[in-house]
Amino acid sequence: MADTATRIFETTGQERLVSVQANGGSVALQVEHAPGVWITSDTITEDSVNRVYFGAARVRIVPSGGASYQVH
């Protein structure tokens, strides 16, 4: 089921697939640089499937404007 909420993924050291249905909006992938400091590493604006490495940092996924996503 597609997710429209902001979620934080803890350090996993795993590669995951993130599928995005943009619906005219976007999904931002953000990395926690320091406690409470998030830096956008990528913004996805088209329907796509993206390979994302969840490494040593926490990752936050932020959908906006009607976009949704799934992490596989």
Give your account of this protein's structure:
With 72 residues, the protein is an all-beta fold. It has one domain. Helix content is 0%, strand content 62%. It contains no helices and seven strands. A hairpin with a 2-residue loop joins strand 3 and strand 4. The N and C termini lie close together (11 Å). The model has no long low-confidence stretch (mean pLDDT 93).
Summary of the model, kept short:
The protein has about 70 residues and is mainly β. Helices cover about 0% and strands about 60% of the residues. The chain has one domain.
Helix-strand string: EEEEEEE
Largest sheet: 4 strands, antiparallel
Report how far the terminal alpha carbons are from each other: 11 Å
Morphology call: globular
Count of domains: 1
Which structural category fits the helices and strands? mainly beta
Count all strands and give the number.
7
Low-confidence stretches: none
Tally of DSSP helical segments:
0
The strand order across the widest sheet is 1-6-3-4
Radius of gyration: 11 Å
What share of the residues lie within helices? under 10%
* Average residue-wise pLDDT: 93
Beta-strand percentage? over 45%
